[in-house]
Amino acid sequence: MAKPNYTGVYHMVSQDNFEAYLAALDVNYALRKVVCLLKPSKQIEHDVNTGNMKIKTVTTFKNFDMDFTLGEEFTEDLGPVDGRMCQTTVDWEGDKLLCVQRGEKEERGWTHWLEGNTLHLELRAEGVTAKQVFKKAE
């Protein structure tokens, strides 16, 4: 069975428990309040043949770029969120993209999955889970 192609532009429509997630990452109170007001968009380029992916999260505050190959560990700069670096691997778990981040925080990572034109993002750190939902631009 072919894996889904995540290529597209997605706009956030909802989020749940995001401030608690940021607090688990030790993001300061003022920055948490600002970040929770943002409505990010995701611009995803996904080459299904090579496994190369680029995920750009765009906000009015700051943008965040990830450029990686599925299944290969890379060093991720988490500066826009919490100023840390971590070792990151993103790979398939069924039809979902599973990210594992190794660094200062335990159980840190995320899962992306598609349901039609809806992109789901579940974020995890220190036993806290947050969820964001995005709709694909037409």
The CATH class designation is Mainly Beta
Separation of the first and last Cα atoms: 26 Å
Give the fraction of residues assigned to helices.
10-25%
Within the CATH hierarchy, at the fold level, what is the topology?
Lipocalin
Structural class: mainly beta
Q: Largest beta sheet, briefly?
A: 10 strands, antiparallel
CATH architecture verdict? Beta Barrel
Rg estimate, integer Å? 14 Å
Figure out the total of helices. Answer: 2
Shape from CA axes? globular
How many structural domains are formed by the residues? 1
Unreliable segments (pLDDT under 50, ≥5 consecutive)? none
Mean pLDDT: 91
In total, how many beta strands?
A: 10
- Which sequence of strands runs across the widest sheet? 4-3-2-1-10-9-8-7-6-5
Which key phrases capture this entry?
single chain; about 140 residues; mainly beta; Lipocalin; ten-stranded antiparallel beta sheet; 2 helices; 10 strands; globular; Calycin; Lipocln_cytosolic_FA-bd_dom; transport; lipid binding
Mind explaining what this structure looks like?
It comes from Triplophysa rosa. GO terms for molecular function: lipid binding. This protein is mainly beta and 138 residues long. Strand 3 (52-58) and strand 4 form a beta hairpin. The two termini are 26 Å apart. The model has no long low-confidence stretch (mean pLDDT 91). Helices cover 12% and strands 53% of the residues. It has two helices and ten strands; from the N terminus they run βααβββββββββ. Helix 1 runs antiparallel to helix 2. It has one domain (8-136): Lipocalin. The chain has a ten-stranded antiparallel beta sheet.
